[in-house]
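Exam revision sheet. Question 4 asks you to relate a sequence to its structure. Input first:
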Amino acid sequence: MNIQITRLAIVLLSVLMMAGPLQAEKLLPSQEVLLAKPVTLAANQIVARVIRIEFPVGFKTPKHIHEGPGPRYVLMGKVKIVDKDGERVYHPGEVFWETGEPMLAENAADTETVLLIFEMTPQKTQERTGRIVIQPK
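Answer key, structure tokens:
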């Protein structure tokens, strides 16, 4: 009888030990690298910003540059980017790298397009805060 209880205890303990890590794995958040890129910054002191930008239906930027490079993440809608590498449309959940070279951006959706811009600029650049909404002309 003692041998059976000992064996049962060992089996139960083994099951509990295996279930613990399995439960812990279920509680961990999932993670996916969307973009990894080495960056050489123009200055040692930078200002890093996260900017939410909303493009109304039909909006298209003029040709422009950004002082700071960085990733851009599409939250909703579609954005068409035209730069020296060509033309590409990005969808929700996609990331693209903006180099600081001249480019155009256009809302390519039938609804509002929303992006998160992660920008790294020299510290001398005037601080911008808050929500940015670009209105069509």
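Marking note for examiners. Residues 129-137 have pLDDT under 50 and may be disordered.
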